Structure formats: structure tokens, C-alpha cells
Input
Amino acid sequence: MAYIDFVSSIHKKTKRDYLGRVNEYPKAEAAKLAKLFDKDYWDGDRKLGYGGFTYDGRWRTVAQQLVSHYKLKKGDRVLDIGCGKAFLLYDLMQEVPGLEVHGVDISKYAIEHAKEEVRSFLTLTGADKLPFSDGYFDLVISLNTLHNLYCYELDQALREMERVGKQKYLVVESYRNEEEKANLLYWQLTCESFCTPREWEWWFKQTKFTGDYSFIYFE
Output
């Protein structure tokens, strides 16, 4: 297990008006709509989610780093938990022709609007009940997803990720101080597990998760 950051450079490219986010629209109503993970969340107004989640190649550098670090090659199997529209899986396939990719997500809308090239490899299911055998994947990834689970779901999801993957890498939201905590609360719409780095590390130990990880902060 190691702290490895492949994602924060992308996260920091987005400018966020935290006070504007929490004041522009009733936050509770925005969260209710976002947690449906339907069109409003993916392709609706920005105050309800992504504001239009389209492929622009921004995840290609992450794919390249994953391939290099985990030494992925033709015939290897990769699972993305919370794959959304599967843009990262598509980029991984471009980097390693012959890579076997799979994705799971609870959003029917995201899967139906995923990249056509990978849509047939996606399954509508939760992170806490993965329909795969033990050790099936050479790499299991989960980026910006597991913090959306309640603690009883999170416990099982981490155990499932550990069970099906030989190598694992996850990214979750976190905070190191009161300013980052407030920013996270202002900005998030779907988060259920609000944990400091130390608390996340407790979760990893509790569930015997041995994979690599990194955190997203709202600075």
C-alpha cells in the first residue's frame, strides 16, 4: 500500500466558487437531484453536477500513468468501480490494445451514454456487490466514487475491491483542516463519507484493504 497521486493535477485545473455554489441554489434540493445520478447530474446544469460530462481526453494522462506504474499489458484485466461514462476505460484501451476492461456503476444513464467503444463492457451494479470471482482482475481502480457510500456500504465495497483485484488504486475526497472541510461541504452534492486522511487510513486497516490510494482536497 502506498500513497500515489495520479489525479490532483486534473482536479486543480477546475476553478471553484465555493460560496457561489452553496448560495446559488438550495443545496438540499441540488443534492436530492444529484443523488439520482441521472441526466441532471451528468449533463444538466452545473449546479446539479458536472454540467455536461463529455469526453475531452483529460483522463489520458491518468491512463498513461496507470499503465506505466502497474505495468499493464495486452490480455490483462482492469475493473473501474464507479466508471461513469467510462472515459478512463476508453483511454486505457487506447494505451494498451488488447486490454480487457470492465466497469461498474449504479447510474443507468451514465452507462447508456458511455463511450460506445466500451459500453458493452459495463455493468449496472453497486460497489458493494461485485459480480466477479476472487482475484479476477490484474488492476481494480475507483476514482472519486467510494466517498459517496454510507459507512456500511463503504466497508463492504473496500472488501470487495480487495477481493477481486490483485492490484488496487483508489481516489477519494478528504480534508486536512476546517477550511478544506467547509469547502468540501459547500461543493459536494453526493458525498456521504466525510473523512480526514487518518480516518480513511483507519478504514483501509479495518477492511484489510492493501491497495494504493490518494486523496482529493478542496483547497
